[in-house]
Amino acid sequence: MVLKIFQSESANIGECLSNIEEDSKREFLKTPGKIEKSKIFLNFGAFMNVTIAVVIDETQPAEKGIITAYTSGKNKRDAMKKLQEIINKQIKSSMEIVDFEVGTYTTPVTRRTYAVGIVVYNIPEQEIVLKKLSIKERRRILARALELFNYNPKVLNISEVARTFGVSRDSIYYDIEQILKEKKSAGS
């Protein structure tokens, strides 16, 4: 487990949220894992202040990210309705939302109302269903395995490989034969 904290403060809402998105993207690329917990803090005033703390389990594979958005409106209700539309356009069905926070702020002088929203999410890595792969995909995987073992098919348990891919042993033998032929013709 690792804790990551992202913080930004600015008089400009767009700049503040952009900094959060850029910093989190950079850190998430360097840190593997799935976000297990998150806390989001929004503070409004002369400056917009955003702090997001996430706990990442580095043993669980997942793509992760933070969506930020803001908009203005005639009043809080109008601004929130617009914000909801903006955020919903960015949310994908594959996302697991870990945390979210929304808030509004009305400027004292202009009486302009802003709505700000932040969503923290994971996209779980999907397991490859080996039995549904095409012949080309299956051969690509077999070719990589053979390459790792210096193209020695004797190291493979053909029965187990066939069972894993959901095909006959003859299919695997034929795939290996074709892979070795391609390697030989490419090497000549």
A few lines on this structure:
This protein has 188 residues and is α+β, with helices and mostly antiparallel strands. It has helices at residues 13-30, 76-90, 135-148, 158-165, 169-187; strands at residues 2-10, 34-43, 48-57, 62-73, 96-106, 113-124.
How would you describe this protein?
With 188 residues, the chain is α+β, with helices and mostly antiparallel strands. The chain has five helices and six strands, in the order βαβββαββααα. The strands form two sheets. It has a three-stranded antiparallel sheet with strand order 1-3-2, with helices on one face. Helix 4 packs across helix 5. The longest helix has 19 residues, at 169-187. The mean pLDDT is 91.
Descriptors:
single chain, 188 residues, alpha+beta, three-stranded antiparallel beta sheet, 6 strands, 39% helix, elongated
Characterize the biggest β-sheet. 3 strands, antiparallel
Shape: elongated
Number of DSSP helices?
5
**What do the pLDDT scores average to?**
91
